[in-house]
Design a protein that fits this description.
This protein has about 250 residues and is α/β, with parallel strands linked by helices. The chain folds into two domains: about 160 residues, SPOUT methyltransferase, trefoil knot domain (Alpha/beta knot, 3-Layer(aba) Sandwich), CATH 3.40.1280.10; about 60 residues, Trp Operon Repressor, Chain A, CATH 1.10.1270. The chain is about 35% helix and about 15% strand. It has eight helices and nine strands. The strands form three sheets. It has a five-stranded parallel beta sheet with strand order 2-1-6-5-7. The model has no long low-confidence stretch (mean pLDDT about 90).
Length: about 250
């Protein structure tokens, strides 16, 4: 999968994309990340990528020309298929459903907004999707682009050491992940739940499913409203409600 990232600050990506899982995915040619400096496509000797907004007001706006010429160049005069994404606070909020959808694409072009935003002509004519990573404002779209690349890359085959592990990630199936423990068995009076040491994989699996549902019910109950639970999960959720609140849905 190919990611093209249009940015004013390509050096910001050096650390996040040069370590850990993303580094390995790049080395194994699973993903290709191409950083494009927007200033390389400016049309004046000062490499001006932004200007004052028409109509007045505070801040600066990213100019239409350099982004247009960058897109034209990397898509061979707009003749290559890609999904163009503008990272912006007003975009659709990134979630695991969107991540799965984007992981099916062959090429994503990410445009990192900055200052007061980008010239609206870019947004209206050359953007397929606007994406936000939350209801807050960052200095620019670089960090959201890093988040999106990391989240999408995890969904690709062979990026993780065990492809099954991502299926237990929080949000992958609409609920939070279950608790995890490793050695030592006891540390300063804090012990690992005995069931995880039992060797009974059927009971362990049930415990994990129940704990995942309990954590979701207590911390993010909103997720359960939009998640289609299996019959087993529904039964476990009834148990959880009975234990916590004394609520019996069968009454």
């Amino acid at each position: 999968m190919r990611f093209d990232i249009l940015t004013l600050f390509p050096e910001m990506f050096a650390g996040p994309f040069s370590d850990s899982i993303i580094k390995k995915a790049r080395e194994n040619d699973i993903i290709d990340i191409n950083l494009i400096d927007i200033r390389d496509y400016t049309t004046d000797k000062h490499n001006t990528a932004d200007d004052y907004p028409y109509g007045g007001g505070a801040g600066m706006v990213l100019k239409v020309e350099p982004i247009y010429y960058a897109l034209q160049d990397i898509t061979n005069d707009f003749n290559q298929d890609s999904t163009n994404i503008l990272l912006t606070p007003r975009g659709e909020q990134l979630d695991q459903t969107m991540v799965k959808e984007l992981s099916a694409e062959k090429r994503l072009i990410l445009i990192c907004g900055h200052y007061e935003g980008v010239d609206e002509r870019i947004r209206n004519n050359f953007v397929d999707k606007e994406v936000s990573i939350g209801d807050y404002v960052l200095t620019g779209g670089e960090i959201p682009a890093m988040v999106l690349v990391d989240a999408v890359a995890r969904m690709l085959p062979d990026v993780l050491g065990d492809d099954e592990s991502k299926k237990n990630d929080s949000f992958y199936n609409g609920i939070l992940d279950y608790p995890h423990y490793t050695r030592p068995r006891e540390f300063k009076g804090m012990s690992v739940p005995e069931i995880l040491l039992s060797g009974n994989h059927q009971l362990i699996d049930r415990w994990r499913k129940k704990e995942a549902l309990k954590r979701t019910y207590l911390v993010r109950p909103d997720l359960l409203k939009n998640t289609k639970l299996t019959e087993d999960q529904q039964e476990l959720l009834r148990e959880i409600k009975q234990e916590i609140e004394g609520v019996n849905d069968n009454e």
